[in-house]
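User: I'm writing a short methods note and want a consistent example. For Tumor necrosis factor receptor superfamily member 6, I'll paste the sequence; you return only the structure tokens, no commentary, since I'll be parsing the reply automatically.
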Amino acid sequence: MTFSDTIFCFSDVDLSKYILAIAELMELDKVKKFVRKNGISETKIDEIKNDYFQNTAEQKIQMLQWWYQSHGKKDAYHTLIKSLKKINCCALAERIQDIVMKDIKNSTSDNRNENESENYLSSS
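Assistant:
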């Protein structure tokens, strides 16, 4: 499976649980560039900067959350990865993809183990 294939496999990933990790990986200028290119107005960016003037970590989180809420879940993962690549943040896009893939693999594995346990218990 290629990088592009993986993006489409997980196009409806709920990014809300990854916003904090994504914000930690990104520099403030990259977050601002990303949200600008994806429809967040300069006015909203300034509002967030002013609301969290002393806290750049929170600025990043708020900007990403605002983008995610305005974009919606559908294709948000795809938009995030593609947009990061367009602004020359390929390594960052790959790190985010790795985080999401590992989490999904672990969730799938956990669900499989739960189902196997339930099947074992019901057959005993």
